[in-house]
Specification:
15 helices; six-stranded parallel beta sheet; six-stranded mixed beta sheet; 26% strand; globular; 33% helix; 426 residues
Length: 426
């Protein structure tokens, strides 16, 4: 007998059929019911925030406000989230002309006009000033000195100059910062590329998988950096169900409210597992439109893969390696050499180099195989990752290489690895 598992793959679906004798755990987010009234949930969060006065009491007429929103790489339902925030601001006397809606691009590409409309709604795009500035536009960045951690503070001018900063986003597991959300909308969200590089370079020297770790070094760093130099006065974050509907909303202090939101996120995305598997299939959906975003799924798969095991990475990667063309060559290099270059400051792109070093550390523990239509065999060769076209044939060959006694229940599957957090019950 076999089990057929449907894998969302870009805009289509692939099905993988696994013999029941081989199948171990299928780790996917929980089927949690969404909020019955999302508007009421958001309104209540704004008026009864965590660790902060209500939003209407945080602003005064005449102040300028930066409403910072995440970009096309996130699934936050902004058309539901932004309007109530704007209504609260206007009710408190903030004029429309004093509001800037700033897209937190990080180092991602600019959002297209159609993407902005889809993200925010046509009426908001038409009525408000939208700041859609890339991290490489140095003329639009302001230098605020160096933080106590030594990271230079180059920030989008619209954010640095605002009297009040409000961050809107969602909370999901994150491979470097433990979880998304909170102050992360500022760093790296609205910073210059030079600041982002300095921030991300540290990840090359952290060998452990930080997915779901609230005490992750980069989480501590970004929160301290933001508090010191570019304070976020208020945050509004949602936790969605696996199909993108609002489950919970938290608002208020960017640390206290974020921590409450993380507990809600664990309810949705956290999946208890009892063991690691010698063969794991990680389908990187819903963050599978390029290789950079697919990395989220790789780190989730790593958490389920046994030492010396094989992680089969499945990603549509419709935009290829996207805005990060140097990543494949860094992934394929020796991580110790890459780290040495980062320390000496001689890498052309410290952030992409750090990602390559992270893969190098991963490869010391497990084997990687790539199945993708958007990435090429040449990409895989550059990364020194075997490239295959069939999930099932790759799985069968890998299971066949195991001792016969180890084949039973040897395959773990993550159908939505881009958002899932496998964790081990003690």
């Amino acid at each position: 007998m076999n089990t057929a598992i449907a894998l969302r793959y870009g805009n289509t679906t692939r099905t993988v059929t696994i013999p029941n004798a081989w199948l171990g755990a299928i780790a996917r987010p929980a089927d949690i019911a969404p909020a019955q009234n999302a508007d009421a949930l958001i309104a209540a969060a704004l008026r009864q925030p965590i660790g902060s006065p209500p939003l209407a009491q945080r602003v005064k007429p005449g102040q300028t406000v930066a409403v910072i929103v995440d970009d096309y790489t996130r699934k936050t339902p902004m058309p539901v989230l932004v309007p109530p925030v704007l209504r609260e601001l206007h009710a408190a006397g903030i004029a429309r002309a004093d509001i800037r809606i700033v897209v937190a691009l990080g180092t991602h590409r600019l959002m297209t006009p159609s993407e902005l409309v889809a993200k925010l709604g046509a009426e908001i795009v038409r009525a408000y000033t939208i700041v859609n500035i890339p991290s490489t536009s140095e003329a639009d960045m302001v230098y605020l000195g160096d933080s106590s951690l030594g990271i230079p503070v180059w920030v989008n001018r619209a954010v640095a100059d605002a009297d009040v900063r409000i961050g809107l986003g969602m909370i999901t597991p994150h491979l470097e910062a433990g979880f998304t959300g909170g102050a992360k909308i500022i760093l790296p969200g609205v910073c210059s590329r030079r600041t982002v590089d300095a921030f991300h370079a540290a990840s090359a020297f952290i060998p452990e998988n930080q997915l779901g770790n609230l005490d992750a070094p980069l989480r501590r760093t970004l929160e301290q950096w933001v508090a010191e130099r570019v304070p976020l006065q208020f945050m509004v974050n949602v936790v969605t169900t696996r199909d993108g509907k609002i489950f919970q909303c938290v608002a208020g202090d960017p640390i206290a409210a974020h921590r409450v939101g993380v507990e809600f996120a664990r309810q949705v995305f956290g999946v208890p597992v009892t063991r690691r598997y010698p063969v794991v299939i990680a389908n990187c959906y819903p963050y599978d439109f390029d290789w950079w975003q697919s990395i989220k799924g790789v780190w989730a798969g790593d958490r389920m893969t046994a030492d010396g095991g094989t992680l089969i990475i499945v990603t549509a990667a419709t935009e290829g390696h996207g805005h990060y063309p140097l990543v494949p060559q860094y992934v394929g290099r020796d991580p110790d050499q890459v780290c040495a270059e980062i320390k000496r400051g001689v890498t052309p792109d410290a952030m992409q180099a750090a990602t390559g070093a992270m893969f190098g550390n991963l490869r010391r523990r497990i084997k990687l195989v790539l199945v993708s239509d958007g990435l090429t065999r040449a990409d895989a060769d550059a990364m020194r990752i075997p490239y295959e076209t069939s999930i099932e044939q790759t799985m069968a060959a890998t299971v066949a290489s195991l001792p016969e006694s180890a084949r039973k229940n040897s395959v773990g599957v993550l159908p939505e690895a881009g958002i899932v957090l496998p964790w081990f019950e003690k």
